[in-house]
């Protein structure tokens, strides 16, 4: 080989080395290599996934992502995290032996004081619990922070991460929106299934994210662990989750859009009907929409997103009946009502703005 050829060969190799260094590894890019348990736990709460692109549709129940696969079109009734078990503890401080939920607070307990719990909630942050997705698959959940609520000492906001088995990294399972870009979660007793029904399952609770209906209803005053005027607010909270999502049929499907303005009022007086105009609400533009029970609407005047009432009748046949309009008083008038329940049994009612004429309901997936 001549000296000139060797010089050209050396130059060609030097050009190829940077390209080889940045070449994609073989195999499908969407599947990450499994991570060992010790390394997995060491990675928790390191905020490795701050730049996710999320495009939520409709009003969410849990406020969580529907699927870890961002390319997949998932049903609105699916979630990467629907419930968490208080035991077993996947990872915890040496002195922490168990966890319990008291109202809206998670409390770590030790072997020496299982009844009292550790002082000031010590031992909660850093714990890894066993959760479950809507498809039944297990998912580990790390508690990365606990912020006492300034409005309610019996409640705390938690910063959580769940193990994304697809990407092999920890991620905040809560969906970020423009108004809440770094959402936290509340610990709420029991489990919500895909139909939106609540089940008071012993030993399990829900991490309800800040942008979901479960948390919104708590923020509006319906704390399910509290009472008002001598009555438990648990049923009012459940009815509120149906109302917030416009889940008329009680099947878990929403008929609304994010950030829709609502006026909510109930028969206990937790929230009263708004009569004065403000920057966020104009009573003159609003009208009665529906009355609500724990399993959906008891009667409707119209839909929130502009779809025809006939579409609701088809979605849940035999649930509602039409006929002469029913006057409820104070300007409230039902066009369709339940076949198995009186509108008077409603716990909550709401007003909303009528959608613009010709408005097309958003598609919320299959």
SSE-based structural type? alpha+beta
Q: How many E-type strands?
A: 21
* Biggest β-sheet description: 7 strands, antiparallel
Can you write the helix and strand succession as a string?
A: HHEEEEEEEEEEEHEEHEEEHEEEEE
Q: How many domain units?
A: 2
Quote the beta fraction. Answer: 25-35%
Approximate helicity band: 10-25%
Calculate Rg over CA atoms: 25 Å
Multimerization status? single chain
What is the distance, rounded to the nearest whole angstrom, between the alpha carbons of the first and last residues?
Answer: 66 Å
Task: Provide a brief overview of the structure.
With about 375 residues, the protein is an alpha+beta fold.
Word description of this protein:
It is a single chain. The protein is α+β, with helices and mostly antiparallel strands and 366 residues long. It has two domains: 30-213, no CATH class; 220-366, no CATH class. Helices cover 14% and strands 28% of the residues. The protein has five helices and 21 strands. The strands form six sheets. A seven-stranded antiparallel beta sheet has the order 7-6-5-4-1-11-8. A six-stranded antiparallel beta sheet has the order 14-21-15-16-20-17. A two-stranded antiparallel sheet has the order 2-3. A hairpin with a 4-residue loop joins strand 6 and strand 7 (169-171). Mean pLDDT is 85; it is low at 1-29 and 48-58.
């Amino acid at each position: 080989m001549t000296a000139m050829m060797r010089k050209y060969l050396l130059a060609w190799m030097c050009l190829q080395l940077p390209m080889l260094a940045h070449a994609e590894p073989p195999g499908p890019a969407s599947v990450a290599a499994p991570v060992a348990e010790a390394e997995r736990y060491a990675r928790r709460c390191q905020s490795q996934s701050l730049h996710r692109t999320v495009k939520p549709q409709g009003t969410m129940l849990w406020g969580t992502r529907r699927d870890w696969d961002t390319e997949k079109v998932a049903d609105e009734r699916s979630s990467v995290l629907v419930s968490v078990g208080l035991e077993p503890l996947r990872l915890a401080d040496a002195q922490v032996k168990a966890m319990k939920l008291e109202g809206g607070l998670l409390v770590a307990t030790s072997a020496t004081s299982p009844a009292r719990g550790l002082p000031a909630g010590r031992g909660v942050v850093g714990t890894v619990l066993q959760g479950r997705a809507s498809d039944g698959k297990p998912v580990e959940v790390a508690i990365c922070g606990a912020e006492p609520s300034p409005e309610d000492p019996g409640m705390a906001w938690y910063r959580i991460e769940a193990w994304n088995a697809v990407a092999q990294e920890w991620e905040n399972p809560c969906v970020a929106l423009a108004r809440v870009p770094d959402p936290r979660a509340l610990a709420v007793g029991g489990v919500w299934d895909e139909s939106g029904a609540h089940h008071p399952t012993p030993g399990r609770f829900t991490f309800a994210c800040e942008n979901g209906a479960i948390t919104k209803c708590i923020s509006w005053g319906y704390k399910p662990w509290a009472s008002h005027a001598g009555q438990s607010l648990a049923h009012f909270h459940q009815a509120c989750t149906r109302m917030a999502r416009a889940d008329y049929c009680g099947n878990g499907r929403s008929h609304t859009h994010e950030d829709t303005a609502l006026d909510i009022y109930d028969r206990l007086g937790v929230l009263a009907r708004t009569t004065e105009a403000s920057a966020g609400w104009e009573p003159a533009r609003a009208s009665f929409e529906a009355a609500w029970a724990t399993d959906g609407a008891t009667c409707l005047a119209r839909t929130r997103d502009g779809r025809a009432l006939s579409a609701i009748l088809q979605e849940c046949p035999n649930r509602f009946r039409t006929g002469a309009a029913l006057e409820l008083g104070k300007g409230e008038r039902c066009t369709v009502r339940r076949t198995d329940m009186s509108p008077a049994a409603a716990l909550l009612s709401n007003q909303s703005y009528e959608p613009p004429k010709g408005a097309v309901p958003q598609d919320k997936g299959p």
